[in-house]
């Protein structure tokens, strides 16, 4: 099982939701082998929580030892995990290699019963395992949680304006829009008319979430014309942005947390943390952003402007003032969020990840072949050893120091197997994203490089420093 099997995505800025990523699970639990090769206690790289993984059945001690080492820990041979039922949500079962009778059981510690649903979704929906609950979760599961689609890379689409609307700013009066979670159409228009929400929802796993408890509160401010004007401006900005794909009643299964149609005043469906992100009090750079000139004048927090709002907008100062006023109305101050420096959860953890040396099964061989662990990959980066870890499109996925990046086409490309790729050689059905043209810079013998291989966007299989033979 790959290092840090959990991946989080933010569905709603009103409250961060924890999501790992991978193939959907929820399969019937098979009879597990009695043989316990050992266990590994480690800190999950994304959730920050300690977990315990048992290696069952056909694992060799060397395989189990190396897998545990990949999690920055040391294996305990021939012993089970042993976290008490009353101290854990349950177990996540993985079929590692059925033919070789290799299985893994990850014990998930915790006692907050309200989190059982998200823990199961984490295990099955994205982890690709099957959840077995303990009494903490009532000994019950909520049923299989489905599968996650492949991340669809943003596409720039130009369309004729809707009937009755003025000509667009694009070629021949068209309206041009990035179908991306950080995309926005032209000001005064609706993203849903010009962008693809189906595409956007592959970039942030979508599911319905109840709004904040204040959602239906009466609000005397709606009698103030000046307040209503600003409130409606913020709503119009959000209608033009991809936020609407999950935050309106048009979302397939209902909105995720806050939503525009919530009443009497839609802003009351927000929780305080989402408001703080809107105010720029919490750094949300990790979500990614387009520059305004490429996004119909809309932008949000970037590495150059870390204190900007989390919401795409044509007027950052005005947007932040609205959210700051809302926080003040609720009695919240900036210092209330002093311990929440970053808002993108594991997207930030990913960006700030510091790699260590590769194990022998993660390497670039003398002939240039790349080897990684954890299965087939869609994204491969070879970077300078000092480069940052890749984040999300459009501005964080090719860090400074990238020497070579290739992507498997999400529409039809077949994921790449370890050992099938040679540095600088682009396989069929694969696109070279960096450099834009020509061959990458040759690798130097004896020099360290950062090898970063992903099953999908922000879903690393291998991320470590490799020395060229």
What is this structure's SSE topology?
Layout: E1 36-43, E2 50-57, H1 61-70, E3 76-77, E4 88-97, E5 102-109, H2 116-126, E6 130-133, E7 155-159, E8 175-179, H3 191-194, H4 197-203, H5 225-239, H6 272-279, H7 316-329, H8 346-351, E9 363-364, E10 369-371, E11 379-384, E12 402-408, E13 421-422, E14 430-434, E15 448-456, E16 459-467
How would you describe what is shown here?
The protein has 469 residues and is α+β, with helices and mostly antiparallel strands. It folds into three domains: 36-137, no CATH class; 155-346, no CATH class; 354-467, no CATH class. Helix content is 16%, strand content 20%. The chain is built from eight helices and 16 strands. The strands form four sheets. A six-stranded antiparallel beta sheet has the order 3-1-2-5-4-6, covered by helices on one side. A hairpin with a 6-residue loop joins strand 1 (36-43) and strand 2 (50-57). Helix 6 runs antiparallel to helix 7. The longest helix is centred in the middle third of the chain and has 15 residues, at 225-239. It is globular, with a radius of gyration of 23 Å. The protein starts with 35 loop residues before the first strand and ends with a strand. The model is unreliable at 1-25 (pLDDT under 50).
């Amino acid at each position: 099982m790959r290092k840090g099997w959990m991946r989080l995505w933010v569905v709603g800025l009103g409250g961060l939701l924890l999501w790992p990523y991978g193939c959907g699970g929820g399969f019937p639990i098979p009879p597990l082998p009695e043989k316990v090769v050992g266990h590994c206690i480690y800190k999950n790289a994304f959730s920050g929580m300690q977990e315990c993984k048992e290696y069952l059945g056909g694992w060799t001690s060397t395989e189990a030892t190396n897998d545990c080492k990949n999690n920055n820990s040391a294996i305990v041979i021939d012993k089970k995990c042993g976290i008490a039922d009353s101290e854990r949500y349950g177990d996540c079962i993985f079929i590692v290699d059925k033919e070789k009778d290799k299985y893994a059981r990850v014990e998930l510690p915790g006692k907050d019963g309200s989190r059982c649903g998200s823990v199961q979704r984490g295990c099955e929906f994205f982890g690709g395992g099957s959840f077995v609950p303990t009494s903490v979760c009532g000994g019950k599961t909520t049923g299989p949680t489905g599968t996650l689609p492949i991340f669809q890379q943003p596409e720039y689409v130009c369309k004729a304006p809707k009937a009755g609307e003025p000509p667009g700013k694009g070629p021949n009066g068209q309206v041009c829009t990035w179908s991306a979670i950080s995309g926005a159409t032209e000001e005064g228009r609706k993203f849903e008319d010009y962008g693809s929400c189906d595409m956007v929802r592959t970039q942030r796993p979508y599911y319905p979430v109840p709004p904040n408890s204040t959602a239906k509160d009466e609000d005397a401010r709606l009698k103030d014309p000046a307040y209503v004007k600003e409130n409606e401006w913020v709503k119009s900005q959000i209608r033009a942005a991809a936020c609407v794909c999950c935050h309106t009643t048009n979302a397939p299964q209902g909105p995720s947390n806050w939503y525009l149609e919530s009443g009497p005043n839609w802003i009351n469906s927000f929780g305080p943390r989402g408001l703080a992100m809107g105010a720029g009090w919490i750094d949300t750079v990790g979500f990614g952003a387009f520059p305004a000139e490429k996004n119909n004048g809309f932008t949000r927090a970037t590495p150059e402007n870390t204190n900007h709002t989390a919401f795409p907008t044509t007027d950052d100062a005005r947007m932040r003032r609205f959210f700051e006023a809302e926080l003040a109305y609720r009695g919240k101050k900036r210092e209330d969020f002093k311990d929440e420096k970053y808002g993108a959860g594991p997207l930030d953890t990913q960006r700030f990840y510091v790699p260590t040396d590769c194990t022998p099964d993660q390497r670039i061989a003398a002939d240039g072949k790349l080897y990684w662990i954890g299965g087939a990959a869609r994204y491969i980066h070879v970077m300078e050893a000092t480069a940052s870890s890749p984040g999300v499109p459009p501005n964080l996925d090719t860090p400074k120091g990238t020497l070579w990046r290739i992507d498997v086409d999400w529409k039809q490309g077949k994921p790449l197997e370890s050992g099938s790729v040679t540095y600088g050689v682009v396989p069929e059905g694969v696109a070279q994203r960096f450099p834009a043209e020509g061959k990458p810079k040759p690798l130097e013998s004896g020099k360290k490089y950062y090898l970063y291989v992903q099953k999908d966007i922000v879903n690393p299989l291998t991320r470590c420093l490799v020395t060229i033979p």
